[in-house]
Design the sequence.
């Protein structure tokens, strides 16, 4: 849905790095290199980025706001 | 070298030792190798694995911190349910200055956690598609007796943690209350992320002049601990601590290299979340550990005395 705040395994903060990661990967950069640059070293945190699908962008279109 | 935590560890250890604990180990010491705001690596010497593990566990689950624990949702028309929103808010690490932390800590230790509450408000309405960030959380002061800490400010470690995305017209209005708690109750209160230790490695080259055939012992090492030069094998001292004790070298040349470890020395690495400086986290963990040891010793002594036999 939306990037989890912390890594499921070690509890490190990851959410604040998501937008930069997504932006750079969308431009065609190698995800491994981007994660290295962002200082995400452990594989538990790296999979959080690699396996995440930001579904909220899709879901948000179907939400009709009614008062 | 800064080692503010050192006397405390020595203290813990000697108390154990005084009361008939561990024998045959040298006096404990800590050598800090790297100390940053959010990371620390150190070598802990002269302790048993039990002491090292007690420290690790205390760091992760016994150092109280602040985290959002109660959320009053006034309005939430976002795509996330109230409870998902509350959960995300709770996981945001909150930064406090050391002075305020001490006040909060003593409040927590006196068992009055509901009296030391930091409150926040969040009010965002989207006129176009937008992301609500942790930076939108507004600190609204402490409640109760802590309202006197007017200068103190509690804020998220980072201002760009996405909380939720809003479509045009959607709105989130809520109040959040942060309380003190420990990692054993919920991971949101953990002050550190990865805390790990390993034995101090001992790599011995049994046969230095081993010629061409042991070039592979050095090549096989993933961490570059061994070096092969001019037909001789040697240990690269400055890389020794990186040895993962994978024994790939031993496998490649069984009679040339021996990998073992010192089970009284530990290489500790601690990674903080930015909630408190790691040095402070270590100090509090030690203090809390010591208190628990005291309580244990006192209970044991009291029950022995009650039996009338004095010390066994």
Sequence:
């Amino acid at each position: 849905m939306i990037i989890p705040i912390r890594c499921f395994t070690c509890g490190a903060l990851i959410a604040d790095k998501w937008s930069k990661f997504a932006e750079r990967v969308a431009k065609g950069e190698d995800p491994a290199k981007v994660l290295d640059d962002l200082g995400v070293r452990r594989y538990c945190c790296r999979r959080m980025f690699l396996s995440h699908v930001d579904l909220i962008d899709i879901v948000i279109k179907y939400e009709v706001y009614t008062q | 070298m800064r080692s503010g935590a050192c006397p405390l560890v020595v203290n813990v250890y000697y108390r154990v030792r005084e009361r008939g604990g561990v024998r045959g180990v040298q006096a404990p010491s800590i050598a800090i190798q790297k100390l940053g705001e959010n990371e620390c690596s150190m070598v802990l010497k002269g302790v048993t694995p039990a002491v090292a593990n007690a420290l690790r566990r205390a760091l992760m689950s016994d150092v109280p911190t602040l985290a959002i624990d109660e959320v009053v949702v006034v309005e939430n028309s976002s795509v996330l349910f109230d409870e998902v929103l509350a959960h995300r808010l709770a996981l945001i690490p909150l930064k406090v200055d050391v002075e305020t932390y001490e006040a909060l800590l003593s409040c927590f230790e006196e068992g009055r956690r509901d009296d030391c509450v930091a409150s926040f408000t969040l009010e965002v309405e989207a006129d176009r598609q937008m992301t609500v960030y942790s930076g939108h959380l507004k600190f609204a002061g402490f409640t109760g007796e802590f309202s006197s800490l007017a200068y103190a400010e509690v804020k998220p470690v980072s201002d760009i943690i996405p909380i939720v995305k809003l479509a045009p017209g959607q709105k989130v209005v809520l109040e959040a209350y942060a309380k003190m708690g420990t990692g054993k109750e919920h991971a949101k209160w953990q002050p550190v992320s990865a805390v790990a230790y390993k034995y101090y490695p001992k790599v011995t080259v049994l046969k230095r002049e081993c010629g061409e055939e042991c070039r592979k012992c050095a090549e096989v090492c993933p961490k570059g601990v061994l070096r092969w030069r001019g037909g001789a094998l040697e240990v690269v001292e400055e890389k020794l601590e990186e040895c993962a004790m994978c024994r790939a070298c031993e496998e490649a040349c069984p009679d040339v290299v021996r990998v073992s470890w010192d089970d009284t020395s530990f290489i500790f690495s601690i990674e903080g979340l930015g909630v408190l400086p790691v040095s402070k986290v270590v100090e509090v963990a030690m203090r809390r550990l010591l208190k628990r040891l005291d309580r244990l010793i006192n209970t044991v002594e009291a029950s022995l005395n009650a039996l009338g036999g004095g010390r066994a």
